[in-house]
Design a protein that fits this description.
Elements: H1 3-18, H2 26-30, E1 32-33, H3 45-52, E2 57-63, E3 69-75, E4 84-90, E5 95-102, E6 109-110, H4 120-127, E7 132-134, E8 144-146, E9 160-166, H5 173-178, E10 184-186, H6 190-194, E11 198-205
Parallel strand pairs: 1-6
Antiparallel strand pairs: 2-3, 3-4, 4-5, 5-11, 7-8, 7-10, 9-11
């Protein structure tokens, strides 16, 4: 092959690459839930469609608190392992996320590698210190209420990152009952430790 022919082929290849469609977002391919890209504070239903495809995003009813139903944009609505629910500050225009959450069967991970099923000690290690969480067995049961200045309180993107925990299915009733209800407990509480909670929900909150 002549040098001129080789140069022409290389030029053609470069032109083809320059007009190739953009690759999907990393969050789509790697299942990383983070406060940027499709899940940034200025996102919208339209951006979710752009990132994940029209057939993969639905605007539908999801569970709220106290048994209520609320409207949300849902990514991969029929795939529990990839499902993401996005509730909006402006529901009419479906813009500005208020809450982004993934639940029990999800395979999404956080930027720090936490995931559904992560244990209390693992979360403490990544946070760099203990934290406060609400008691079990009510609508906000097991949710982190304060990272106490740890690393998980300082994620980029202007979001408030939260986790919710469920106690171990066979947690001793006396210990579990002592860390239940609408009040906060330290993650180091002996009764919380005995309940062996694991992450059951990953939540991103954006203030108004």
């Amino acid at each position: 092959m002549t040098a001129r022919r080789l140069a022409a082929l290389m030029a053609a290849y470069a032109a083809a690459v320059s007009v190739a469609p953009a690759a999907p977002q990393a969050a789509d391919g790697k299942n990383v839930l983070q406060c940027e890209g499709a899940f940034a504070k200025d996102s919208s239903h339209a951006r979710l469609v752009q990132a994940f495809g029209k057939s993969s995003v639905a605007f539908t009813d999801v569970d709220g608190v106290e048994g209520d139903k609320v409207k949300a944009s849902v990514v991969y609505p029929d795939e529990p392992r990839r499902r993401v629910e996005v509730l909006w500050h402006d529901e009419k225009t479906r813009s500005r996320p208020a809450t982004i959450r993934v639940g029990f069967k999800s395979k999404w991970r956080t930027v720090r590698g936490l995931h559904i099923g992560s244990e209390l000690a693992e979360v403490e290690k990544i946070n760099g210190k203990p934290f406060k969480m609400l008691g079990f067995d009510w609508d906000y049961g097991g949710r982190v209420s304060d990272w106490l200045g740890g690393a998980l309180a300082m994620l980029p993107g202007g979001c408030d990152f939260r986790l919710a925990f469920n106690p171990w299915a066979d947690a001793p009733d006396p210990e579990r009952s002592k860390v239940s209800g609408d009040k906060a407990f330290l993650s180091t509480d002996p009764n919380m430790r005995a309940s062996k909670p694991t992450v059951s929900e990953i939540i991103i909150l954006y203030p108004q």
